[in-house]
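Q: I'm writing up a methods section and want to include an example of the input and output format. Could you take the sequence below and give the corresponding predicted structure tokens, formatted cleanly so I can copy it straight into the document?
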Amino acid sequence: MKRFFQRKEGLGRAPAHHAKRSPRGLFRLLGLLAAAPLLGTTAAYAAPKAPAAITVGCLYAKTGFLSFQSMQLHRGLAFWRDEVNSHGGVYVKTYGKRLPITFKCYNDQSDPGLVTVMINKLIDDKVDVLVSDASSFLTAPAVPIAEAHKTLLVNPLGTSRKFFTPNNPYIVQTSDLVTRFWADSITKLLLKMKLKRVAIIYGTNDFDGPQAQEVDAILKKHGVAPVYYSAVPTKTSNYTVILHRIAATHPEAVLEIGYDPNDVTFLKNLKSGGFHFPFVYILFPDLAPAEFKGMGNDLKYIYCYVTAPTLKVSDVNIGLTTNQFVAQYKKKAKATPDAFVTAGYVAGLVIQRALATANNLSQLGLRHAMAGMSGKMKTLGGTFTITSEGAQTGIVSGVAQFLPTASGFKLKVVYPAKFATAKPVYPAPKS
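A: Here is the clean output for your methods example:
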């Protein structure tokens, strides 16, 4: 045995002063060896611990001018939260596990001034994900605040191109098209129908104004100069005088570009004033059908903007198809989902995929993940595709017209051909 240990020591060729160890040195070595597992345990304990939940901070308007679309958006986002939580929560790559989603939300009452206060409050609350309210009107005050605080703003419905600039990486549009593409479908239809005399009336806000400018620019590029082009305050309550001015230009098509309350008022004034135009286009009857209930004959032959869920999508790689979503939402909410509910759900899906793919949960980490998802993520709203500035360009959209059927006037898609269920009726017959 003595000869064996001598041979082992010879293999190491240790210097002479290491050949013998003092008892103190031996105890020291043994102590370090014993401590090694504890050092590993300490390192593991120092790693980031998963929170109890992922907190989504959001604003909604229970009252005020935009309360309807805001609350519908909020219901869609809540539907997404409940859906993922029923399956154990969202998978978060950073922590390698599923976590439930919780909300921290404040009521901005459709007031841009309160949006400023509440967005700052949510940032101070250190929510994990920040979601803006509906519309460009209520998104506009949130954009510079989020940018100043280096906080990513998930923007479902703010479409103004002014929000998306090369120097601001802290905004991503999720569930609606940037204004440029809202203008695309209606101008293409007008040009296809060879309509030359076009009248445009629009609201002075970050949603309506840029959209009207785009329509005007595209038409002029194709040699069509609008015969009437004028702005009105966002909260205009009577269009009668304006309608008289438009009628004097003898238009072939009239475009009223406003929010849902503007559309309702415009249609009522159109009917009560006895005006008739061969082509009338407004934005919201399909987006917010509940706002137009009971209007009946006022909607005859009217054209409007359409998107999901009216345009049905089945080719998805995350979330529910259109038919699945409509069925499940009806079962849960006892109501049919509209475009705003759908937008809330799609915004949630974008957040879900970002959490599942982000290498870290920093604000720019989430933004980088969303950029990586662009063009690859297919939802019932269309393909999630964003520009380098965060503007959404992939959501499906088109134009529909209220046409007569055996059971009354129904909304039929007339553009684009991929989704069309009818051909446009022009000119609109007089009653």
